[in-house]
Design brief:
59% helix, 4 helices, globular, mainly alpha, 75 residues
Length: 75
């Protein structure tokens, strides 16, 4: 499953909110937790793979590219 641009934007917005609420969380951890809350089926798809940023922050861009749809959707 791929996320639209607006869906990915919502995940990033929640990530930012989680990062503010839990400053001890790493960036990748916050992103994965936001993804898991909003789109758990996608989080489960990447969990434990080379795209999972939970433990490795530098996987975040690769993860976003992997889960992002190339289709443009008008909201």
């Amino acid at each position: 499953m791929k996320l639209t641009e607006s869906e990915l934007k919502r995940v990033v917005e929640l990530q930012i909110n989680l990062q503010e609420k839990y400053p001890e969380w790493r960036e990748g951890q916050s992103f994965f937790n936001a993804l898991n809350l909003l789109v758990p089926e996608v989080a489960n798809e990447i969990r434990g793979t080379e795209y999972d940023p939970y433990h490795v922050n530098n996987r975040l861009v690769k993860c976003m590219e992997y889960i992002a749809s190339n289709e443009e959707v008008n909201d």
